[in-house]
Amino acid sequence: MTRILTAFKVVRTLKTGFGFTNVTAHQKWKFSRPGIRLLSVKAQTAHIVLEDGTKMKGYSFGHPSSVAGEVVFNTGLGGYPEAITDPAYKGQILTMANPIIGNGGAPDTTALDELGLSKYLESNGIKVSGLLVLDYSKDYNHWLATKSLGQWLQEEKVPAIYGVDTRMLTKIIRDKGTMLGKIEFEGQPVDFVDPNKQNLIAEVSTKDVKVYGKGNPTKVVAVDCGIKNNVIRLLVKRGAEVHLVPWNHDFTKMEYDGILIAGGPGNPALAEPLIQNVRKILESDRKEPLFGISTGNLITGLAAGAKTYKMSMANRGQNQPVLNITNKQAFITAQNHGYALDNTLPAGWKPLFVNVNDQTNEGIMHESKPFFAVQFHPEVTPGPIDTEYLFDSFFSLIKKGKATTITSVLPKPALVASRVEVSKVLILGSGGLSIGQAGEFDYSGSQAVKAMKEENVKTVLMNPNIASVQTNEVGLKQADTVYFLPITPQFVTEVIKAEQPDGLILGMGARQL
User: Fold this and answer.
1) 426 SS3 class
2) Can you spell out the DSSP letters for 328-385?
3) pLDDT tens profile 465-496
4) DSSP H helical segments within 186-314, as ranges?
5) What CATH number is associated with residue 295?
6) How far apart are CA 299 and CA 303, in angstroms?
7) What's the predicted TM-score (pTM) here?
8) In a domain, 329, yes or no
9) Beta 424-428 vs 458-462: how paired, if at all?
């Protein structure tokens, strides 16, 4: 333990010397066990208690107040400022599966963009009830950071604890399902609270009608169930004058070119006024396009006559695979929901997307009207942008007219390349960076050689990494021919003339460091 402590002191001294941190190198450190860094001996202790009796100790870096809610986890590796300000987390204690949180600090929470929206957040403040992390970094280094994550949490009076075995906690939730829990400080007892018995949509929705992108040619009514700021940005970016209305606003008699039902928290069945208004639209002669996102998918399904159920394990993260049932395209999506639609879709409706992992519904569409919805978040932040095109499809529906369906405007699947028959290929290896450099195994180049061998294709490896060649001599020889030559036009041309390969594999230069 002495060696570990000394090593951290040395590293911190060096980092301070190079300007990476503005914290002195003399801060005292405490270890709960090897490898887990606890920031200060002054940190107040607290516990996360689950309804099944599980109790874990942690140390406060947020507001020191007890809180109860539903304990969930997010598997995303980044984007915690956007995650904790997502209104869909209202009433929940969020567990970050990524072990290190806080090294990016917190951005300017008062900064606004040209629309008057919070520039770096997904709403006007932190929405999680509490935050659980394994290793909290008080020291931060990011060009947007203005304060630490802990300072931000304290300002907004949100409790947070670190030192929690988040891996074990995630496994418990994975195996037993989402459950109630509470962060408790000594002398501050609190009872378990089920947020799904509250109308959380009403708590996060705007109270007044707001307009963004005023003067833009396309009028879109956005129903605020807990809308994320980036949804508004993407609508305005595409030429929409966005009329943001409260969740219970009667929009059935409004004039608009399209309507969007946004995402949000909690049990959608409790938003009965909204369900009734959407049902009126679906059953009327109006055919302006309707687009639902996340909770909007659930609300649309309920309005159509389907049913929802609470998932035993929610989908929350940035890497959920979904499949478009109509054209078999697969996408990686960001998701944050604990409820799903069942298979009771009425006549005239059909599934649009399905989750590849658990086969739950990820979207629905009307078979003859321009109504569709998705369970995932095409607006991302944070997450992949694979499905942002759905906003373009929504506007294509608006421009194309009312007598059409979403499938008519979805982009066509990319053509699948036909197989090219080759018998010999030239693979350009990684080589070394400089003379005297230690050899490092070229994993991607080696995998390319193995893949070609499985296809009975002869391989010519040029400019190999020395470590790769050394392992090539052990056991089954992989590359058929090896050239220790640099990658220059002259040498590559000479090798091609000598070997006469049918194909060339480029860019196999990544190292496994």
Assistant:
1) strand
2) --EEEEEEEEEEEE-S---TTEEEEEEETTT--EEEEEESSSSEEEESSBTT-SSS--
3) 666 665 555 545 678 888 888 888 999 999 99
4) 200-204, 229-237, 272-283, 295-304
5) 3.40.50.880
6) 6
7) 0.77
8) yes
9) parallel
Residue 287: closest CA among 409, 397, 410: 397
DSSP 112: B
173 shares its domain with 77: yes
Q: C-alpha dihedral over 214, 216, 221, 225, to 10 degrees?
A: -60
Residue 112 CA, chain-centre distance (Å), reads: 23
The last residue of a domain, from among 128, 163, 197: 197
CB-count burial class (<10 Å; 0-12, 13-18, 19+) for 9: middle
Terminal CA-CA length for the chain: 27
- Give the residue numbers spanning the domain of 240: 204-408
Contacts of 114 (CB under 8 A, 6+ apart): none
- pLDDT tens for residues 366-400? 999 999 999 999 998 878 889 999 999 999 999 98
Q: Write down the residue that tokens 């030239």 correspond to.
A: 426
485 lies in a domain? yes
Write the burial class of residue 456 (CB in 10 Å: 0-12 exposed, 13-18 middle, 19+ buried): exposed
